[in-house]
Design a protein that fits this description.
The complex is a heterodimer of chains A (337) and B (417). Chain A contains eleven helices and eight strands. Chain A is an alpha/beta fold. In chain A, a hairpin with a 2-residue loop joins strand 7 and strand 8. The termini of chain A are far apart. With 417 residues, chain B is of the alpha/beta class. Chain B contains 16 helices and 16 strands. The complex binds thiamine diphosphate, iron/sulfur cluster and magnesium ion.
């Protein structure tokens, strides 16, 4: 095995070493007793944000559910890289049915649990549904909205990498404006995705006035764990939307996954917040605001903006969109700035 | 207990007696009364420990059923027509995963043109989905088949579709014998799943399978249906022992012993066919009927045995395989392979067109005289068809075909006389 230097402390970040924290404040991942729900050996690309997000989210959910958790999974990278027959990385009961029905499958699991509990044949078991942005915001949206609207007792987690990565990087309704995918190129004058399209499902989830909606990124894994834990402490329909950089689809370096997630948050491109019953209750403040270029230029999907003549107007529109998020979700601490 | 009741209600009572734990459905005519009836029974506490879920589509209905069945709950849903097609992806998934869901299909035509009336196009479109498909001849049989369906599904771990003719059965008030809870409990044990999502014994269900094992996994589905082929007659016997009546099984034979002409059909039309056959028998004609109860698995051997000594077979089906002719007849012909007899396909009753004794008698007589072609559309109005074909020959913008044909027929067809 080749030599890998081990870094014990991260510099230039806001993370705090676990050993400085009291036992009960330490992260789920820091605990030897964590489940390793998504175990090593799976086939995700190096630096896959989705694998990282899923591991943290499901381990936190497992802890909150005292190990009594069932997961339903949509078709997509997470499903494909975790369960190539006859192997599986999942250490928890897990079912994959289809691409577009995961929320409904989870509803069925929750219904069965409710009946079995009532009959005294089962203790309390909790349900998580998970899928990519395509499986959530596009093809699975009907089932998702139905599950929200009925307020079924399911935590749905969307791993948003801004496209259909499993099928080779096509556009989804979560592909951000100006980002290039295989299918944005044939439509419109620009290779990147059009402005004024797409949807932000966390806001739509809020419109359903479900008990809990949150966004998170894989840059703030403690925040992610906290939100999953909080969601698991509630009943009814809950939704967490996690931004998970995809080195392959974004044309980014594997080691930049965390950095990109952080920049998405620090630029305001991806607002990180919580909402309860449809009302915004908190947002994760930007610590050190960055211009959107810092985020864009690390990704080949935006390379067409940085040619010989930079697409200044397009970049300005993206900056304006980030600024709008900052206003809308209160991402800048007024006093600090 | 004997009751005069609606077919849908009889089925709802049967399903209720099977102690379902999760019921999820989306409304579509002519299935609605079944699900509404079940909803009332859950509300009234007649069905206990059961979750009744209103979903936003048939696709969700089958998906919820997949989730609950995989978690070990006895699960029921019902649909028809467009609803069955809307859930098709999940229909295949449920059988692929080996989940013993029971679903009623209140058989109805498929559009366009949209049509709410009965034929078998919906169920037959799913014939290769891996579901066991049983067809009821009467409301009593519809009731009985549901009780057998749960047992069958759970023994072989495959989903079962109980098909009953929309409106003709679902909305007909008939006398049915509704069994007692004790009888049903004696016949149908609690559900013991083969695979279950259980935190104390975690498994992954629905993994990706490549070429190395896919054929084997698919073959297993076939092998399970072959097991069902043996199990279905045994369940019918067990059923008879508990409930005291013949119901279910693979096929129903009627006056076949010396029959030179055999009519093959499925569902409620068998009643009209038998009446017609009685008339013809009275006139000395050697004619009999073979009703197919189990369409999937298809009882090739039984069908072959029934046709062994016949001279001709008329397959009368409420479905059309566009571009070739019959759906059921294709399977019957498979059973006939090597037998020397004339085969006739008759497409009848599409979209609720009444199948009358008069038409049947003329049709069978024609078959006996050796004048019936390979493919016949019973009571087809050739004037209307030819007029439209002529219009399309002469006018490029001939307009929407169905609407033009309706106009040709006139107001009578629309019911606004
Ligand atoms: C009904 C259906 N349509 C299309 C597909 C093909 N398909 C499989 S995964 C996938 C993309 C998944 O994208 P996403 O949900 O964003 O997950 P990711 O792979 O990006 O994590 C597509 C289009 C499918 N499996 N089923
Ligand atoms: S393509 Fe992207 S989402 Fe899929 S495994 Fe690779 S990095 Fe992860
Ligand atoms: Mg994606």
């Amino acid at each position: 095995m080749s030599f890998q230097p081990v870094h014990f402390y991260q510099t230039g970040t806001f993370t705090v070493g676990n050993r400085l924290l009291a036992q009960e404040e330490r992260s789920v991942q820091a605990n030897m007793e964590r489940t390793n729900s998504l175990n090593s050996g799976h086939r995700a690309c190096q630096g896959c944000g989705e694998a990282l997000g899923a591991r943290y989210a499901i381990d936190a959910a497992m802890k909150a559910a005292s190990g009594r958790l069932i997961a339903a999974n949509a078709t997509g990278c997470l499903e494909v890289f975790s369960t190539p027959y006859p192997e599986t990385s999942w250490q928890i009961p897990w079912i994959h049915s289809l691409f577009g029905n995961t929320a409904a499958v989870a509803t069925g699991i929750a219904a069965a649990i409710k009946v079995k509990r009532h009959k005294g044949q089962m203790g309390d078991v909790r349900v998580v549904a998970q899928g990519g942005d395509g499986g959530t915001t596009d093809i699975g949206f009907g089932c998702l909205s139905g599950m929200f609207e009925r307020n079924d007792d399911v935590l749905y987690i969307c791993y948003d990498n801004g496209g259909y990565m499993n099928t080779g990087v096509q556009r989804s309704s979560a592909t951000p404006p100006a980002a290039r995918t295989a299918t944005t190129m044939p439509v419109g004058p620009e290779p990147g995705n059009a402005f004024g399209q797409g949807k932000f499902v966390p806001a739509i989830a809020m419109a359903h006035e479900i008990p809990y909606v949150a966004t998170a990124t894989v840059a703030d894994l403690r925040d992610l764990e906290y939100k999953v834990t909080k969601a698991m402490g509630m009943r009814g329909a809950r939704y967490i939307h996690i931004l998970v950089p995809c080195p392959l689809g974004w044309g980014a370096a594997s080691e930049d996954t965390i950095k990109l997630a952080r920049l998405a948050k620090e630029t305001g491109i991806f607002p990180v917040f919580e909402a309860e019953g449809g009302e915004l209750t908190s947002s994760l403040k930007i610590r050190r605001q960055q211009p959107v270029e810092e985020y864009l230029k690390l990704q080949k999907r935006y390379a067409h903006l940085f040619g010989k003549t930079p697409a200044v107007a397009t970049i300005a529109r993206l900056q304006a969109a980030a600024d709008k998020n900052i206003r809308k979700y209160g991402l800048l601490d007024q006093e600090a700035n | 207990m004997l009751k005069q009741t609606e077919g849908s209600h009889a089925v709802a009572e049967a399903v209720g007696l099977c102690r379902p734990e999760v019921i999820c459905a989306y409304p579509i005519s002519p299935q609605t009364h079944i699900v509404e009836g079940l909803g009332e029974m859950v509300k009234a506490g007649e069905i206990q420990d059961c979750e009744f879920i209103n979903v936003e589509s048939e696709f969700a209905a089958m998906s919820v059923a997949i989730g609950s069945s995989a978690t070990g709950a006895r699960t029921y849903t019902a649909t028809a027509s467009q609803g069955l097609l809307f859930m098709a992806e999940a229909v295949y998934n449920a059988s692929g995963l080996g989940l013993p869901i029971v679903m009623t299909v209140a058989n109805r035509a498929i559009g366009a043109p949209i049509n709410i009336w009965n034929d078998h196009t919906d169920a037959l479109s799913q014939r290769d989905s891996g579901w066991i498909q049983l067809f009821a001849e009467t409301n009593q049989e519809a009731l009985d088949l549901h009780i057998q369906a749960f047992k069958l599904a759970e023994e072989v771990s495959l989903p079962v579709m109980v098909c009953m003719d929309g409106f003709i059965l679902t909305h007909a008030y008939e006398r049915v014998d509704v069994p007692t809870q004790e009888q049903v409990d004696a016949f149908l044990p609690p559900y013991e799943p083969r695979q279950v999502l259980d935190p104390t014994d975690p498994v992954s269900i629905g993994a990706m399978v490549g070429p190395e094992a896919f054929s084997e996994v698919r073959y297993l589905a076939h092998a399970k249906q072959m097991q069902a082929l043996e199990l279905i007659p045994r369940l019918a016997e067990q059923f008879k022992a508990v409930f005291g009546r013949d119901s279910g099984g693979l096929t129903h034979s009627y006056l076949l012993d010396d029959a030179e002409t055999v009519v093959v059909a499925m569902g409620s039309v068998l009643g009209t066919i038998k009446d017609t056959v009685d008339e013809m028998r009275a006139a000395g004609e050697k004619i009999g009927v073979l009703g197919i109860t189990s369409y999937r698995p298809f009882p090739l051997d039984n069908v072959r045995a029934a046709l062994q000594n016949a001279q001709r077979v008329v397959v009368l089906e409420k479905s059309l395989a566009v571009g070739i002719g019959g759906v059921l007849s294709t399977d019957v012909r498979m059973a006939m392979s090597g037998l020397q007899l004339h085969g006739h396909t008759v497409v009848a009753g599409l979209g609720g067109r009444a199948i009358t004794r008069k038409s049947l008698r003329a049709l069978f007589a024609k078959a006996v005289r050796g004048e019936l072609g390979h493919l016949t559309f019973l009571d087809l109005d050739w004037n209307v068809v030819n007029k439209q074909l002529e219009r399309e020959r002469t006018t490029r913008r001939s307009g929407p075909a169905a609407e033009s044909m309706l106009r040709d027929i006139g107001v009578i067809a629309t019911g606004i006389v």
